[in-house]
Amino acid sequence: MNTMLLKWHMAHNKDDVQTLAKALGIHANTLYNKLNEKSREKFTQDEIFEIVKRYKLTGDDLISIFFSTQGY
Asked: N or C: which end of the chain has fewer CB within 10 A?
């Protein structure tokens, strides 16, 4: 996952962990763990879909963020 690119989209849309977590219906700590890959928690398909809609991500953005093996 390309965390830095997702965080860029969050900042560009004036979101932080609290606001995005609320939009996704999850606890901020859960989102923090998913962003920092501190646990085995991964984004669900529904969460990814919501993020794509919220930030109007392109297909390339989707692949770059969630299917990147670069681990930024």
From this structure: C
